Amino acid sequence: MRLFRLTAVGLLALSITLHLASANAAVKPGKPKKGKWEKIFDGKTLNGWHNYLKQGQPVSDKWKVEDGAITLTQGRAGDLVTDKEYGDFELELEWKIAEKGNSGIIYHVKEDPKYKATYETGPEMQVLDNERHPDAKMGRNNNRTAGSLYDMLPPTDPSAYKPAGEWNKAKLIVKDGKAEHYLNGKKIVEYPTSGPEWDKMISESKFKGWEGFNKYSTGRIALQDHGDRVWYRNIRIREL
């Protein structure tokens, strides 16, 4: 009988301990869970993508899938955008640009007929042949070179870029009002997406006075048709 009472007391103490631990865990702030990685290009088709302002229509045949990569074979195809919209996210992909080529990765794109192009609303991570395309010499302080926040912030380490014909691994993180650009494992651009610092950058850029630029906290991701041959592969994203 005594053994039974001791066992009961022990079980009661254990129960109280577990309850308190559970309660403490419930009130302690923890890191928010990240979403699972999702492939947004299957390597074979353009499922999940459409031309800007043409959802539900066939993608232009100037955008093709070749050797596991999305490629723009000639210009005037229109930008390619995701069917899905994203807010905070981490995007990874690889890109390769042809000689004298120009393209870009644009995010938070608002798909609305009043905006004729993706770049009217979405900030751009530049994709460029720095050695041969004239855009590299335009703008201020290299803020139109590969990996830059286009026309706003230059890459802090230009050596992170690999030249035309070589694959570059890019990462773009947008979270809690901040964004980071990575190229080939190096963080090269970091900025707030709102507030006084952002407003100052806008005021000194070509986007000054643009009605819809960066006014949306969610939107589509776009691969830009700038008229030049470009390749994108191993595209994946996770929501944050």
TrEMBL record:
Keywords: Signal. Residues 133-153 are annotated as: Disordered. It comes from Nibrella viscosa. Residues 1-25 form the signal peptide. The lineage of its organism: Bacteria, Pseudomonadati, Bacteroidota, Cytophagia, Cytophagales. It comes from the Bacteria. Transmembrane segments: none annotated. This is DUF1080 domain-containing protein. Residues 36-238 form the 3-keto-alpha-glucoside-1,2-lyase/3-keto-2-hydroxy-glucal hydratase domain.
